Amino acid sequence: MKHNVMDRELKSEIAFRDFDMEKDFSRIYKWMHQPYVIPFWQLNLSKENLKSHMSEARIDPHQSLYIGSINGDPMSYWEAYWVQGDVVEKYYEADPFDQGIHLLIGEADYLGRGLALPLLRAMVDFQFKWKQTKKVIAEPDHRNEKMIHVFEKCGFKKIKKIELPDKTALLMFCEREEFEKRWKNDATHL
């Protein structure tokens, strides 16, 4: 599945396409070994182990893996998932169509350029294409202050800290109504 949007503020095309093991594995391997990614993803595995992990993730029916690009340049990795069937469903009363998101900007050249918010906004907009979805959640590492700030600017609200198997996370919700009020009528964005 693909999703493309022209971000009028960036004057750039943001696109998401399905992760392709053959085309994208070397890129993901590089990104997972970046010093700024390791503390939050903890997937700095050997090639064999990472390939096994990605193979399992790719066939997991409750999530979809995407490569995000700006103007055709692949620079980010995304996991969009249904909360039902995920470990996080135990931490709040999830609706059947709640979705969640994981992301990383893999290419260092794209860091610190104000791109995380437009990228996140485009992905959340993509997730809300499912009309039954009323809420998108995130559970960033509670120490990842930069991403927590970006989630808040996008329309996510802090709910509570939760103890996941691999991290202490901050559970955050983005309600469709809030997101649309914030972005849909803003001619400079979506």
Automatic annotation (TrEMBL):
<dbReference type="GO" id="GO:0046677">
    <property type="term" value="P:response to antibiotic"/>
</dbReference>
<keyword id="KW-0046">Antibiotic resistance</keyword>
<dbReference type="GO" id="GO:0019290">
    <property type="term" value="P:siderophore biosynthetic process"/>
</dbReference>
<feature type="domain" description="N-acetyltransferase">
    <location>
        <begin position="14"/>
        <end position="177"/>
    </location>
</feature>
<protein>
    <recommendedName>
        <fullName>Lysine N-acyltransferase MbtK</fullName>
    </recommendedName>
</protein>
<dbReference type="InterPro" id="IPR019432">
    <property type="entry name" value="Acyltransferase_MbtK/IucB-like"/>
</dbReference>
<comment type="pathway">
    <text>Siderophore biosynthesis.</text>
</comment>
<dbReference type="InterPro" id="IPR016181">
    <property type="entry name" value="Acyl_CoA_acyltransferase"/>
</dbReference>
<dbReference type="Pfam" id="PF13523">
    <property type="entry name" value="Acetyltransf_8"/>
</dbReference>
<dbReference type="GO" id="GO:0016410">
    <property type="term" value="F:N-acyltransferase activity"/>
</dbReference>
<comment type="function">
    <text>Acyltransferase required for the direct transfer of medium- to long-chain fatty acyl moieties from a carrier protein (MbtL) on to the epsilon-amino group of lysine residue in the mycobactin core.</text>
</comment>
<dbReference type="InterPro" id="IPR000182">
    <property type="entry name" value="GNAT_dom"/>
</dbReference>
